[in-house]
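Hi Y.,

Following your request, here is the sequence exactly as I used it, all 403 residues.
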Amino acid sequence: MTEYNFEGDFSNLSERQLEYINKVVLEQNLKVNKVVFNSFGQAGDNFGANVKRISIEGENGSMKMIIKIAAVDEIVQVLPKLVALQKAARVPEEEHLRYAKCYGSLDEAPNEVIMLEDLKESGHIMLDKYEPLQDDVVRNILKTFAIYHSLSHVLKNKEPATYKCFEIKLRDVWSVMSATPEYTNNFKGIDDATVSIVENETHKDIVKNRITNMFKLVLKLVKEENTKYSVIQHGDAWTNNILFKLVDGEVGPSTMIDYQGARRNNPVMDILYMIFNGTDYETRKNNFYNWLDYYHSELDKSLSYFSLKADVIYPRDQLDADVKKYSELIFGVVLFTSNILNRDVNETKEVIDNMEHSGLTELISSMANTKMKAESENRARKKIEGIIDSYTEFGFFDHFQIK
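Below is the corresponding structure, written out as tokens. Let me know if you'd prefer a different format.
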């Protein structure tokens, strides 16, 4: 193995990955003395990613980066393009889409690695995943969604060939999984585990088979999708994948991270996924439809910089119709995520340790067979019951297509 000025735990990195990391580090012109590898957060912070933080120390200064050991996503190219559109239209900087700078990416299977800006160094924080997001925070995120989604429409409108190129390259993993029985059959155990969490018999009937049914819904919705309203979605915008800049001690602008789920989809999938994974019943009860109003107004504001109107690009009545249409799929998705997002650090580590490999089959089996602790199960139960109450109140169950 080639000698580098590396310290810490980098044992799970290949020689080719280390060679590439060293190359990118040297390009920063810091006259490097040493590079220290550290773990990033705790198990479950970003469940699907193998992530490390590196500290670079040199004669000309120091800096930190985030290393993601994962397949390189096309989104690395998409985000700078979207901001370039804003700059060309002279959109005020405070309205620009925020994202972590990419210092480099290696797309050579099986040695893929992405090197990103460490946003913690610029005063960004991650909120507590167990604490429900409050109204001001939700609005902050919805503004970010509105900007992000609007730029898909702008790119589609101004440079359709470029948009189509990105759209094709972003893989729709859920559609592939949904058409593959060897994957979908593994989710029956999660369905059974979810039913066992719920105590109310009526609620048990409501959640039964909802996770396995979501794959039928994915295929159905893909066939029915009106691509006129589709955008490049984030795909996994839950609490730990959204960082916030602290401004005078208050939560300020949000930045989405971990775009590995990015693909073409309806924009309400991002909105509903964030709301039903991140908020509680009471906050939704008081704010849900106001949130939809706010998202649409911010979408219109962002589109206006490009002489486009939300009433034409994505009318409000279409937003309302899509919320109802996609609510059934989100219900199954959030039942599924409740199994892992409500576990504590040790439990999440146990799930990971119980995986023989890093494949989806082993992950799902481990989630189904690794029993939740009482406290985590109570969190999951409260989450599920609150979602059922919201769906009942909003009348979403009336629009379910698979009974």
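DSSP finds 16 helices and eleven strands in the chain.

Thanks again,
Q.
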